């Protein structure tokens, strides 16, 4: 008699996860050596291609091409070889600038400079007799040079010229300043700053990662991805220089951002991968789950940063557009390295991810103490959600207090004072300010195309009557308060050519002051014998400010609408995106309040390092910092919402989802914020105050966001809103189900 063996039916297995990210994880696992090999080839090629990137960067592009000040500068350069000089030489003589020996030595220096290829014009006290080019003590004089080509060409030419015309020259002591000299110093300072940042930020990053992961193998994962991202960044910068004038500030900023973002993305991915392995998942399944959850959040967060930066393209300023393009490229590189290369590396490492833990005893003791107890972030979230109004209100008040200095923010454009005080261009400029009439160095220029010498006297007389005008120089002489104070001199002939005439308007106020802006407006509105093109540093500030302010509403609309739509696609909620935007703006206002207090008002130098406080913030840098900080803040919002939504989809309990989400990601936020802030703080050691401002600003924004915003205000708001957090009208819910991104 045969017996039939009855086998209990197995529980039906869930079908394997589908979707683009699940498929990407399987490809990375099954073709891991191919992916790693291609990544290695990319690193080698990118390293070779990007090795000379610093030689191709420029520092121009702050004024719109269509601006009146740009047209004035172009007209003066084309027809008078005048306008803003590219190079200013401060010449110190042994006795007097009028001494025959000194005059002869200066003449030889001028002749040598004039004969160099690429030098358009050279003017000095000795060849023009202009009093403004002679120091008050009579022992120093200025030689100014205008170069051919754009600002990048001028910088490269100055790099070759400076060693031959500075230092001791025939008994003369020669120092250089001007925008070309400042640009050269910027590039050299960038190389020094990057090396210093690596020395400072590297060990701190390794230590934070080691304390977070407790494994040298796990620590190596983010560093590998960061290396791929940084080397790729250098190649990207080099490629972009062939189509854009890429700012010298892009070098420090993008390499630091590439490193910081890559480490952040990799940290979240590695932690979730280890979590899945600890649950008993196979390596391939762990990678699939990791990419479908955290990988999805990485891509969404990267797109959020890209959308915030895309708003910079509405501003007609090449400086902002070039930096936006380079930083966007860096974000893409960091995200791709995290979701493509890192899974392949993890597939090779497999379960050895926890090997080599030099802190094993410390880790085991910490885990033993924490066993069975809720974690610190669980306790924080629970405490906040018990008293959301009280704790959230106190935190909001603190942020408002930090934001108060922003009420007296002033904006201008940077000059050589962004450099360290001991740098040669800064030192030369300071001596010029001390020894010369400072107003003479940055006059307002007025170009009159088509106007002859005989048609300018009355116009110059009227301009000299305007408030804050010290003197007007032109072909017919010099004028003050409506009166001619000097007849035409030999140098006056340089103010008139067949193409037209121009005026130099010397004011007695700072070019970045409100009075100077009013003066530009008054000159532009004054009746002129022909079309008047007003230029100079004050006019550049006015034109740049007008161009930026006029596009701010559109840029803000792009950021807010695109971010709202993206977060809706991510969460399916209408209130969560609105809450995220409001809290981000709240946090950023506090950040910029701190920036005003530090960099505009000159406080806390003992903490952030020495810099020159000019009494204003650079407007272009402020806009860039806002877009970057907004995108990076949303970066953490996406990671937190990803875990909260995952918990809410499982439990349907809003309070539990927020507590569990913060508990599972709070430690990661702390580590990610500390890593990113340490990289930014290393950037803040820069001698260039503009880079220092960006480093301090982003470090503060990220730390504030990871603690006060994500740790306190987000759970407080989500507790008060309850289930309404996840509300959306039925049509929008159906829309989200159809087009919301899935892993």
Task: Explain what you see.
Strands 7, 8, 9, 10, 11, 12 and 13 form a 7-stranded antiparallel β-sheet that branches. The radius of gyration is 31 Å and the shape is elongated. It contains 24 helices and 14 strands. By secondary structure, the chain is an alpha+beta fold. Strand 8 (469-474) and strand 9 (477-480) form a beta hairpin.
Task: Label the CATH architecture of the domain at 184-358 and 373-416 and 542-739.
Answer: Up-down Bundle
Large-scale geometry: elongated
Radius of gyration: 31 Å
The overall strand count is 14
CATH class of the domain at 184-358 and 373-416 and 542-739: Mainly Alpha
| CATH fold node name of the domain at 184-358 and 373-416 and 542-739 | Multidrug efflux transporter AcrB transmembrane fold
Uncertain segments of ≥5 residues (pLDDT<50)?
1-12
Alpha-carbon distance between the two ends: 54 Å
Strand content: 5-15%
Helix content: 55-70%
Put simply, the count of helices is: 24
Structural class based on helices, strands and sheet pairing: alpha+beta
- What's the CATH H-level superfamily name of the domain at 184-358 and 373-416 and 542-739? Multidrug efflux transporter AcrB transmembrane domain
What is the mean predicted local confidence, pLDDT?
A: 85
Sheet of most strands: 7 strands, antiparallel
